[in-house]
Amino acid sequence: MTTRPPYVATLLDRPLPTLHLSSLSASSNPPYDAQVQASISDGRHHPLLEVTLHLLNSDLFSAHFLVRKMEKQDVAKWLHSFLHAVEGDLRNARCWIRDTPPDVLAITVDDPEREAGRQEGHDNDREKRQEYRRIDVYAFLKGMTPQEVRDQYEKASVEVDLRPDLAHLETLHGQVTADRQARTESDEGLRKQRWHQLVNMLHHLERRYGYQPYDGTVAYDSKEEKQHTTTMVLGEGWRRF
After folding, report:
1. Residue 86 DSSP symbol
2. Would the CA dihedral through 107, 77, 6, 23 be positive or negative?
3. For residue 33, what are the contacts with CB-CB under 8 A and spacing of at least 6?
4. What does the pLDDT read at residue 64?
5. Whole-prediction pTM value?
6. With a cut of 50, which residues of the chain have pLDDT below it?
7. Contact residues for 179 (Cβ-Cβ < 8 A; gap 6+)
8. Closest Cα partner for 149 from 140, 159, 157?
9. Handedness of CA 86, 87, 91, 97 (dihedral sign)
């Protein structure tokens, strides 16, 4: 792996992102650090690594610009789900998790969690169920009701055996929102979980691709949709947004 750029330390040392509705708009979704945004865009890193760095910088607009060009890449599916969960688009978050292979989901969890899964026996849907649960908790912390979350599952065409029933969602909702302390603990716990998942993905992609220059289109596999080409405007530089 080539030397890690200094700005990566800036991202890893930042405060945990808050759990609030974000936006894919360039104007209403400012990055955590605008200078880091420019450095990432000009870095000529592998596109999957670049998406991860933009997400660490809370820059959903830049991340989405790239990840939608890699819809067949397995790692991109998880990154796409992560992005939409942060944005509040739970239907799309579930759809992308539905399509993410178990080996990619395993990358994002810590070794003790992975070992626990092995001890429990091989279960291809274990990590997927955990991801759905994180999305449910995220939704409850943003004020959604159990019925609204259940409706999102229906609209997302999630496999029947992975859909929690309404009673389960009501129980989870009660655990998350029972009192201020429970809500605070759930909020902090989920923020840490999601951050560690993203950092684990960063480490995986650093080992796989490093920071050497790549052709910016090396991982592209999806054609640009017309609505995207007419609404996205690129600025100066390698890949400024």
Report:
1. H
2. negative
3. 7, 10, 11, 14, 57
4. 93
5. 0.84
6. 112, 114-119, 121-122, 226-238, 240-241
7. none
8. 140
9. negative
